[in-house]
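Supplementary Methods. Inverse-folding protocol.

Structures were first reduced to a discrete structure-token string of length 434. This string, shown here, constituted the complete conditioning input.
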């Protein structure tokens, strides 16, 4: 092929005739065309000037027009164009024909059996794999990313185990140790999970600290055991330069048998959030009864202290579905319950006016035993004088609710306080763990 940039019109036509014996298409794109395309790329679509459309039968501009690049850079450009199952070699040569800039475009349909030799095929496959890795691999953890799920997993029809794995308190890791440590934790967890699964299984970083696990051909009876193995491996993982950090994960799992992968993921996600309510749990659709027992055992304990049985009954009715209720009919019994349960108590609901030892006596005892900073107290009392309220807050109570009260407001304020102190306890355990 003549490599001269400057040729005459006659030379160009002679060369084109010669090249037509080799290439399926030989054509010249004049400079005026490219100048117009550069001024307004839509012109080629509006008036049909882009000859690419006629040949490729496309209804949109070329994403990688080598002829445009050849004209702009004044050099030769080459690419492979894929049209359905066919592959075409496209060569675009910049030329100056009679001092007028243009591009000679050559197109060759490549037969499958002569497309490329073995060595070239290996190199091409390697390069394409590199592009695929960049497209589908999460840069932090090295596992598959959400785009891989959307392109390759969402439409899968095979039976599989589907699990959502979420790290407990991951935000705390970032807040305490920084995002670099958070990324290190994600990498370690990803490696731990990969060591527990087969090559045919797929681990996907679904978002943030959530991992989606697809276990190919997993049978219902073995799903829970596999997920428990993964959870235990995560808990046994060690973080370099941070031996105090202990990882736990909450996991939900189901079996997808009818190809409805989105529905299976939604169910696994729901079970994961149920497990997350109690931390470090594995819940599958096969063991809901087991979960109910665990849920009862893991309900946060609330101590209700009031000498009125009626008042205790009202509070118990509001809270007992979510919390395990412990009752004390006065200050003396409250002190015994506090000694008995200690830090197992998540919250104390305390009346002020009681015979013998009143609410302030209970607060004083908790202060002396250094419990008031770890066990939150909410006062619920009909006594609303500013002096009582100020004294209660000075002694460390978290909230003060006057009677009569709205049941929904009581529930929400109790729930908020329990969650806040539970997070505080986990935070303190994390930073003080040896």
């Amino acid at each position: 092929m003549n490599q001269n940039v400057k040729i005459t019109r006659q030379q160009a036509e002679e060369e084109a005739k010669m090249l037509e014996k080799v290439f399926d298409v030989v054509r010249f794109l004049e400079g005026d065309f490219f100048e117009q395309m550069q001024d307004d790329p839509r012109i080629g679509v509006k008036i049909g000037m882009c000859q690419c459309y006629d040949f490729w039968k496309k209804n949109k501009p070329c994403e990688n027009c080598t002829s445009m690049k050849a004209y702009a850079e004044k050099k030769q450009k080459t690419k492979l164009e894929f049209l359905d199952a066919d592959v075409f070699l496209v060569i675009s040569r910049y030329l100056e024909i009679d001092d007028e800039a243009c591009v000679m475009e050559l197109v060759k349909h490549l037969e499958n059996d002569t497309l490329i030799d073995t060595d070239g095929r290996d190199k091409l496959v390697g390069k394409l794999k590199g592009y695929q890795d960049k497209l589908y691999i999460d840069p932090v953890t090295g596992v598959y990313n959400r785009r891989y799920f959307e392109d390759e997993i969402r439409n899968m029809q095979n039976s599989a185990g589907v699990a959502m794995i979420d790290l407990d308190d991951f935000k705390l890791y970032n807040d305490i140790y920084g995002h670099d440590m958070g990324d290190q934790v994600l990498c370690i967890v990803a490696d731990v999970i990969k060591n527990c699964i087969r090559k045919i299984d797929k681990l996907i970083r679904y978002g943030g600290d959530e991992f989606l696990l697809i276990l190919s051909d997993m049978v219902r009876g073995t799903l829970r055991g596999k997920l428990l193995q993964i959870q235990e491996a995560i808990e046994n993982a060690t973080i370099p330069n941070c031996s105090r950090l202990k990882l736990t994960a909450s996991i939900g799992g189901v079996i997808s048998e009818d190809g409805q992968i989105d529905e299976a993921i939604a169910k696994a996600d729901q079970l994961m959030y149920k497990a997350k309510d109690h931390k470090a749990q594995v819940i599958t659709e096969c063991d809901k009864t087991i979960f109910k027992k665990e849920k009862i055992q893991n309900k946060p304990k609330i101590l209700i202290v009031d000498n009125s049985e009626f008042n205790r009954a009202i509070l118990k009715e509001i809270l007992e579905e979510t919390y395990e209720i412990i009752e004390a009919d006065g200050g003396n019994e409250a002190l015994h319950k506090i000694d008995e349960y200690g830090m197992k108590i998540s919250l104390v609901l305390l009346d002020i006016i009681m015979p013998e030892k009143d609410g302030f006596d209970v607060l004083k005892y908790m202060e002396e035993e250094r419990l008031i900073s770890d066990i939150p107290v909410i006062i619920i009392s009909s006594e609303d004088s500013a002096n009582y309220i100020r004294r209660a807050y000075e002694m460390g109570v978290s909230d003060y609710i006057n009677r009569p009260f709205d049941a929904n407001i009581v529930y929400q304020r109790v729930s908020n306080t329990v969650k806040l102190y539970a997070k505080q306890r986990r935070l303190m355990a994390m930073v003080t763990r040896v």
